[in-house]
């Protein structure tokens, strides 16, 4: 069965996902798109033989759309996800699920009331080969009980519109989800340290930041977020356990030995670094719709990430260790993070 897909938001990642759903993933067809920039929507639609519809709501209720992909700006996500649930359609929403914990909770409640899983959140690192291998090692007891985790999330440069809270809301949100998933544990507190800022940033930005998280079982995590590191898009993660450590591999590339040097390339952006993960993420999403059983990160994960993100932003401003207060996890979402 071909899954007919409508895409809301035809910007950078919207176009990338449309390319993927059209040319990489089997069993999917993009039948409708929309964007507040109608010209852009029309151009993108013409490129893949889809229709450009006036609004997101039109896409959601369209008879030729079985499932919706939301790739518009973050603050618009919750409204579209709620409308898709209301229409009884599957919806893949890029991160964040919602920009407030209250909106994320409304989505959790609406999905639970609908009685079946309809929502998947775009936490693509769960589909990265390296992270999957790390999760397998931890799950099989390969390093004993985890005690510590050291992470770094570096981007080459951030635009002027990027502000200090976005280091959490837009960037660290990936680690927030990954930590919960890798450790099968819940984050219970957050703290943020402010090192001296780089001169290569816009004045208003605190960059880098060091975030410290603690999980329910007592694992301590340090995360460096540095979005003007200049040299590339670099994602690091090492978990330290009682009997060993496991480290995320750098993406496979050749090592060049020449002129007295040993060199390899560093990725320059998320598109390149996580290309294979995005491919797998959407392929598995489409396959799970065909099976009628969503398996990827869902509304509860989006809600938990939103609450932890709020606590981290509070910690950035207050300098305090801020406790994370999640609602009780409904049985509907199973027992684990
Ligand atoms: N998983 C990842 O690593 C990753 C990477 C990049 C972006 N993202 C997320 O994807 C989303 C989009 O990011 P982007 O980089 O493509 O941004 P973008 O600005 O390039 O594209 C967003 C598009 O949405 C359109 N839009 C805005 N509001 C709309 C609305 N109400 N209805 C319809 N269209 C609307 C804009 O006109 C624009 O074309 C963000 O939430 C971002 O955090 C995730
Ligand atoms: O929207 C992007 C994207 O999520 C990237 O994966 C992250 O590294 C960036 O910091 C963020 O701005």
In short:
The chain is α/β, with parallel strands linked by helices.
Description of the structure:
- Its EC number is 1.1.1.18.
- It catalyses: myo-inositol + NAD(+) = scyllo-inosose + NADH + H(+).
- Residues 4-123 form the Gfo/Idh/MocA-like oxidoreductase N-terminal domain.
- InterPro entries: Gfo-Idh-MocA_inositol_DH, Gfo/Idh/MocA-like_OxRdtase_C, Gfo/Idh/MocA-like_OxRdtase_N, MI/DCI_dehydrogenase, NAD(P)-bd_dom_sf.
- It comes from Amycolatopsis alkalitolerans.
- By secondary structure, this protein is α/β, with parallel strands linked by helices.
- The chain folds into two domains: 3-124 and 277-298, 3-Layer(aba) Sandwich (Rossmann fold); 126-268 and 303-330, Dihydrodipicolinate Reductase, domain 2.
- The protein has ten helices and 15 strands.
- The chain has helices at residues 12-23, 38-48, 56-61, 77-86, 101-114, 129-139, 166-183, 270-273, 275-291, 299-318; strands spanning 3-8, 28-34, 51-52, 67-70, 90-93, 119-121, 146-154, 187-193, 209-215, 220-226, 234-241, 245-247, 256-258, 261-263, 322-323.
- The strands form three sheets. A seven-stranded mixed sheet has the order 12-11-7-10-9-8-15, with helices on one face. A six-stranded parallel sheet has the order 3-2-1-4-5-6, sandwiched between helices. It has a two-stranded antiparallel ribbon with strand order 13-14.
- The structure holds nicotinamide-adenine-dinucleotide (NAD) and 1,2,3,4,5,6-hexahydroxy-cyclohexane (INS).
- Residues 8-14, 34-37, 40, 56, 71-74, 76, 94-95, 122, 124, 170, 270 line the site of nicotinamide-adenine-dinucleotide.
């Amino acid at each position: 069965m071909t899954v007919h897909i409508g895409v809301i938001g035809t910007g950078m990642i919207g176009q990338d996902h449309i390319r993927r759903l059209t040319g990489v993933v089997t069993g999917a067809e993009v039948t409708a798109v929309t964007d507040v920039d109608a010209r852009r929507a029309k151009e993108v639609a013409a490129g893949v033989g889809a229709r450009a519809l006036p609004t997101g709501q039109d896409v959601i209720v369209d008879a030729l759309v079985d499932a919706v992909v939301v790739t518009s700006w973050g603050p618009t996500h919750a409204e579209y996800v709620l409308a898709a649930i209301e229409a009884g359609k599957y919806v893949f929403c890029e991160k964040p699920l919602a920009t407030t914990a209250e909106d994320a909770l409304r989505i959790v409640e609406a999905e639970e009331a609908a009685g079946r899983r309809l929502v998947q959140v775009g936490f693509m690192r769960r589909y990265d080969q390296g992270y999957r291998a790390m999760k397998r090692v931890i799950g099989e007891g390969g390093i004993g009980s985890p005690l510590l985790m050291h992470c770094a999330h570096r981007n080459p440069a951030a635009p002027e519109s990027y502000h200090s809270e976005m280091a959490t809301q837009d960037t660290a949100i990936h680690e927030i989800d990954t930590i919960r998933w890798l450790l099968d544990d819940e984050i219970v507190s957050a703290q943020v340290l402010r090192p001296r800022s780089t001169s290569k940033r816009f004045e208003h930005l605190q960059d880098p930041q060091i975030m410290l998280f603690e999980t329910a079982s007592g694992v301590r995590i340090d995360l460096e977020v540095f979005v003007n590191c200049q040299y590339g898009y670099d994602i690091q993660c090492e978990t330290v356990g009682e009997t060993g450590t496991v480290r995320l591999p750098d993406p496979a590339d050749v090592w060049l030995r020449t002129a007295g040097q040993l060199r390899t390339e560093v990725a320059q952006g998320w598109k390149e670094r996580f290309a294979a993960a995005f491919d797998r993420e959407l392929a598995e999403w489409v396959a799970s719709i065909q099976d009628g059983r969503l398996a990827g990160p869902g509304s509860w994960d989006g809600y938990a990430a939103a609450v932890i993100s709020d606590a981290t932003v509070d910690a950035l401003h207050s300098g305090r260790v801020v406790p994370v207060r999640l609602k009780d996890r409904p049985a509907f979402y199973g027992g684990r993070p």
